[in-house]
Each structure stands twice: as C-alpha cells, then as structure tokens.
Amino acid sequence: MEEFLQACRAVLGAQHVLTDAADLSGYLTDQRGRYTGKSPAVLRPADTGQVAGLLKLCDQYRVPLVPQGGNTGLVLGSVPDQQGNAVVLSLKRMNRVRAVDPVNNTMSVEAGCILQHIQQEAAAQRRLFPLSLAAEGSCTIGGNLSTNAGGTGVLRYGNTRELCLGLEVVTAQGEIMSSLRGLRKDNTGYDLRDLFIGAEGTLGVITAAVLKLYPQPRAQVTALAALQTPAQALQLLSLAQDRCGPALTAFELMSDFCLQLVFKHFQDQRMPFGTSHPQYVLLELSDSESEEHARAIFEEVIGNALEQGIIDDAVIAASMAQSKALWQLRENISMAQAHEGKNIKHDISIPISRIAEFIELTDKLVQQAAPACRMVTFGHLGDGNLHYNVSPPPGMQDTDFIAQQAAINLVVHDSVDNFGGSISAEHGLGALKREEITRYKSPVELKLMRTIKNALDPHNLMNPGKVIQV
Amino acid sequence: MEEFLQACRAVLGAQHVLTDAADLSGYLTDQRGRYTGKSPAVLRPADTGQVAGLLKLCDQYRVPLVPQGGNTGLVLGSVPDQQGNAVVLSLKRMNRVRAVDPVNNTMSVEAGCILQHIQQEAAAQRRLFPLSLAAEGSCTIGGNLSTNAGGTGVLRYGNTRELCLGLEVVTAQGEIMSSLRGLRKDNTGYDLRDLFIGAEGTLGVITAAVLKLYPQPRAQVTALAALQTPAQALQLLSLAQDRCGPALTAFELMSDFCLQLVFKHFQDQRMPFGTSHPQYVLLELSDSESEEHARAIFEEVIGNALEQGIIDDAVIAASMAQSKALWQLRENISMAQAHEGKNIKHDISIPISRIAEFIELTDKLVQQAAPACRMVTFGHLGDGNLHYNVSPPPGMQDTDFIAQQAAINLVVHDSVDNFGGSISAEHGLGALKREEITRYKSPVELKLMRTIKNALDPHNLMNPGKVIQV
User: Fold this and answer.
1) Could you tell me if the ipTM is greater than 0.90?
2) What is the Cα–Cα distance from B360 to B349, expressed in whole angstroms?
3) Domain span at residue A400?
4) Sequence-ordered list of residues with C-beta below 8 angstroms from that of A229, at least 6 positions apart, any chain
5) CA distance B336 to B63
6) Which residues of B are less than 8 Å from A428 in CB distance?
7) Do the strands B214-215 and B42-43 form a parallel or antiparallel pair, or are they unpaired?
8) Are B139 and B175 members of one domain?
9) What is the reported pTM?
10) Tens of pLDDT along B199-215?
11) Do A183 and B384 count as a contact with CB atoms less than 8 A apart?
C-alpha cells in the first residue's frame, strides 16, 4: 500500500493524498450518519488525466477504489466498507464548467460540479437545467449521473439519464473514454453512456458530462389540492395531464399525517385550508406563455376536478412567496419525520395505475407486521415514485424500532414486487440494497449484470461490493 | 445444418421453417434493393418461448442468426451476408399487443407489431405513441428498438430509446430476460434495457417491450416559413423554442432544391409562396389547449421572426388538409430524389449551434470532390439531424456517380467528425457503416463495445458482422 500511495503522490502531489485520520473522517461516513467505513487514503485528483493515472495505479497494484462526489447518497454507495483496503477517490476538485452552448442547449461539466452551481450557470444563460433534488446544494453531478438521480422534475424532464448527452469516463484499466459530443441523435453502436449512468461507479469513473439544457419557462405556478384518497389523486393526475400536457412539471402526493408532522416541527408553516383533509397533491405548472395563462389553466383543471367530485378544495399560489410556502410543506416532510425518531425509508415505484391499491393493501400488511407504527407516505406520484416511510409508534425506542427494520422491509418490498414495482426508484442499490435486490431481480438479469461487471472490471476494483456481488 | 433445421422444425412446426428459395427471397434483400444476402432458412417463431428454443439451438449448433422485423432498415442490418451460414429469425408473427394501461400511460407489445398498428391502438385509448417515421406502415417496433429509430417526433419526445420503459429479450444463450415493468423510475442496477436498444440484434433478440404513451394533444398546427440561410433557420428555432417550449413538436429544414425536386416529380404538389426562397422550415405545434391557441402562438412567433428579419415569409395551415399538404412537401423529398437517379445518402447529426457553418463548408468540400453534383439537404434541424444527400450532376450515369461514393462519404464524414458530429444519427451502423465507424470512434469506445459483445455473445452468433467486427 505504501508503494502505491507513493506513486499516487507522484501523480497528484502529496497534499492531495490524504492519509491522516482527521482528514479522512469526512469521507468515510454516509450522509445519514448510520455507517462509517475504513480506508487507507483519500485521493483528490484535479483533472481527468490524474484520474486516469490513479486508475492505472489501482489496476497495477490491485487496489480497490470508491468514487465519491458530494457523499449525499442514501444507500451507502459512496463510502468504503469495513475491509479497509479501498481508497476513496474524491472528484470534488474537478468542478469546472467546461463550456456552455446556449444555441445547442448543452453544457459540459466536470463530475465534481455541485448541482446547484450547474443550475445557476444555466440560468445565467437564460436556460434551465431541470434536475432538482433536496441535496442540490452539496451533491455533485458525477454522483447524480452515477446514481441516475430523480428528484422533482422527472415528470416533465426525466431522470438524470435523460438529461445527459455524453460522458467522459475513466475505465478500470485507466483509459479515458471521451464521448462528449453534444448530440441529440447518435446511433453509432452500443449505448455505453447509459451503461455507466446508474452503475454507481462499479464499471468506471465518470469524470465529465454533456448535459441537456432547456428554455426557461416564463412562469411557474403552484397549486395545492385537498382530497380524500390516493385513487382520487390519480384521477386528478389524468385530468391535469390531459389538460396541461408537458406543462405539468410536478405532481406530489402528501398524506395528512405528513403535513401534521411538518406543522408540529416547523412552527412557521401554515395549513392553507380551514380543515384538514386525508390527502393533498402539490401541482406545479411551467408555462412558456405567462403567469395569467398558467393560472387560467389551473383554474380550469381545479374547477373540473371540484365539479367531478375528485377534490374537496384547492388553492392556487398567488405569488412566488406563496408558491415557495407550498413547496416547503413538501420539502420539510423528511426533516419533520427525522424529528419523530429514527424511521425506515422505502424509495419505491409502482405502475401508476396500481398505486392506490398498493397503498391500501400494504398499509394493512405493515400494521400487521408492526402494530401502531405510523405511515409517512408522500412522493412523486406523477412518476409512480413513493417515499413510503414508516415511523415508530409514539414512545417506542429507536433501537426497538430499528430491530424491526428487516421484517418491515420484507413486507413492503415483497408487496412492491407483487405489484410489479421497484424497491429502489431513485436512490440506487449501493451496499444497502445489494443483497435485497437478489430476491426480486430475475437470475437472468443478475447474470447479465455480473457478466458485464466481470468483463469491464475483471479484478473487481471499481467500488467493489456495491450494486452487485461478483 | 440439416440436423439443426430438423430441431428447429420440432420447435416451430415445419411450416415455419422456410427453406425454399422462393419463400426466402423476400427476406434476403434490403429495402433499397442494393444488397442480397444468402441464408439456408428463415425461422418464424410465434412466441418468446419459441425464440428461446431457437436461440438455444443456435448456441448448441453454433449457427449464427440475423433477427429481422419489417426489413426496412437502411444500413444492411437486417439481412444476412454472403457467407450463407446465418439463418434469418423473422419476428413478424409475434405481433400481439399484450396490454394497454391508459392510466399508467403504457402499452406492452411484441417485437413484430407494426409501428402504425401501435399508433392506432394508442389512439383508440385516446393516447399518443409519438414515434413516427416514413416506414411506419411496415416497420416493426422490434426493429425500431434495435436501431433506436428517430423520426419526426424526436424534438419533443426523444428517440425510440426514450419511449421504452422495459424490454423482454432472449439472450445469446437462449435465456429469457423479462423486464417488462412499466415504471418511470427504477434504479436497481445496470441499464440492460438501453444496452439492447440500439444494439441492432448483436447482443440478443428483443421480443417484447413496454412503451410510453402520452396524452393526445388537442390540436396540431403546421406552418411553413421561407428564409435565406440555415443560420436564420437556427435563429427561428431559438425563437420558437423559447416561445413554444415543448409544444414545438417538429422543426424540419428543406432547401429550395429539395422542393424543386418535389414539384418536378409530384405534379399535384404546390408551392405555397409566390416566389421561391433559398430555404424553408416546416414547424409543427402540438397544443393541449385548442387550435385557436396554437394558431395565436404561431402568429406571434412568425410576427416576431418577420419583424426581426429572420424570415421572409410564412404560411400557417388553415386546415388539416393544408397541414397534410405541407407535410407532404417534406415527406416526398426522398422519393423525388430517387427519381433523379441513384443518390448518396448521409444521415448525420451535428451540434445544433454549428450546423450552418457545417453546411457552408461541407458544400464546398463536396463540390471540390465531385464537381456539379447536387446537394439535397433537408432534415430534422431541431434535433441537429440532417439528411445531407448528394444527387449526381444532371445527365451523369448512375454507375459513374456511385463509383464516387466512397470518396464523397469520406469528405462528408470527415467534415462531420471535425464538427463533433455523428455519421449515423438515426439509421444505425448495420453492415454498411461498420468499418467506416472505426475511423471516427475512439479506440477506447471500440474496445468497450467489443468487450461487451464478447461477454454477452462469446460465439459471435447474434447478427454477426453488424455494428462491430469481433
């Protein structure tokens, strides 16, 4: 290892090979603070050539590595394991925006760029980079790409995969694949780009990307609808999509219990309705015409929904401040839930047509497995993606509740599978769900994944133990 | 071979193993009639189980196979070569729509479904399946997926890749990968779907897919703008996208020479302007509000473009019939060009911001290489995709002109590469461009492609000689 690190110092300069325990600590623990791994060193390259140099050394010395961006992942994909033989490769110094081409609607960025910075650079050119998620102030685009991150803009703009036109990747052999052409159409062979996107660093290291930009909408208007059931929320979704088409850019479900938690823990948050209702939907409309036009469409949709008895009540935000306040209800749910003690998260997706049935049945199954626990159900209903989280019964100790985690996961994920869903809609597999997925993914798919992993990374050095066990 | 064919008959029934020369002929020649391959048999399975049975036999007897759908490809990807040892696997009997789920906005179809049939099934449920291309009356969705077909809806809806949520594939070992969950979000491992999409049958055989559906727009309005240069067309594109956002669903460039050819060979086609102009753009707007609304937006865009001197003139179609007539100008170009003798086609893409410069420079280079030849330049400008075709000088013999094909291709494709473009935007590589691509794709990419091919198809039985030589 010392010889390897010496060679790394020759590539990076000694100051960018961190080995002191104090320097390492920030890189070894996951965001939720649940797991701390071990590592001999953190390597901090400044450019793609240095990454290639390091990966050649890893290959030569057979040293495994864990690529890391903002380390905001939720499935232990970006921290090393307990073996202590894998180095951490931090991409955060590679944070240049290489180019913006507003006419081609593209931007070339390095992997370590913070998502929010990319959004701002796009806005400066009167363009929109639509990827948006809670961690945007600290997550990096390399991590977003490696996990194919979702977020709140998927309904209209797709996952990160759909927002990328080209990649630069360093392979497990330390070779640079530079495929940074900003083309909408290019049918010249296998889709290597999409193979590296979502592979969580297990097939190679993404060092740069060409991203898609969009025209900025002229107006964004938000509304909150109150209704009785998830089934009604789905009726509202059909109604809104039919009327708004691609202008409907968000459709988020929140149960009343979610909002009650928010009001309990965030004293400045106010319920916009006189009484509470069992379910709420946050809708966002992005209009290329005007705010008045957007508002008129929302009024029509809401009028129709009230008339058809789909919703009980609704408010349309009258200002940016009101829009923001409605979004904060949605965004504060996770934090409010954290205040209620440790909770068990499920990041799942279900075919949209079956979600209402899924919630009804699975709520019962969870209550049977863990009586009196509290369902915190919310999420990107328009994408079929729920954060189907479970909080402990009032007064239960964290440790007692977490002891039930495996049993609750099994109930929820078996139900997801029965409904043809996915046990990881937007967070990835990492180390956390690597074993669990083998229960739900077919042997043929697992074999194909393993075949690809073995072919591209024969010594199993790229983020070993994540996504798939070889 | 006879023992193999006997085993195939046991799987399919004798009547679906075609071996008579007369029965085979329709399967061996490509659509443009330029190439006829050799094959001992055409196999016509009726379901996925039979495909798996056949691929197991191919693996066992080491018999190569060429998957074929509607055989409408333009790059010799779906016909066998001259060696005569590969069987043709026709998917055309597998043409069932397995399910439509209008609430989930998905449709499950078998590979042999004709594209137009899928469009019609979607429309019957008041949904849109937006893939649309010239061959839609005879091409199959399996072929569309295997080539990641483009077409006229890419600007808004993306390539075929973006329209697919899940696949059923039979691997080279004859195993069935069934991954037909109709989910918008599913981050549980490597993106196998996108690896098979666009692989032109060289990694496995696509037997079924889950497709994305969209709400039907309430109105579609078409306009034709007349202008001076491709640079102005790009200015118009920015203006229209800024104002229309995702409602702009087509943006097609046509040079005056293209339309002159149409008027020459289609007597019923009329020029909608009093005089001719150097360039034309066909725009289509899909509106979820009303025809009046769409028309008002177009009037605003066109008014602004006239005021800014970007365009010289424009017409907005006043009826469906007029819309259709404008589209026919665009759609008849290929046929009109065919009447002018053999031509040399280039299906290229360029970063949109560089297209005007590309056309200007490359036109000159082509004239140097082949004096007096005529440029037939048109295509999906909004996607950066041009059909940059070359017709012979008036009076030149076909054979004399085709003798210059390699030289002209080299000039055009080298220029494409210099501009950071692609030499196959939407048609794929097949056998036609397999060698040529090695000049432009990096050795690292070619090596990765070969590694994947070898890993998934170690005996090189899946459409051998297409896409990549192993």
Assistant:
1) yes
2) 15
3) 342-434
4) A278, A279, A356
5) 41
6) 187-188
7) unpaired
8) yes
9) 0.97
10) 999 999 999 999 999 99
11) yes
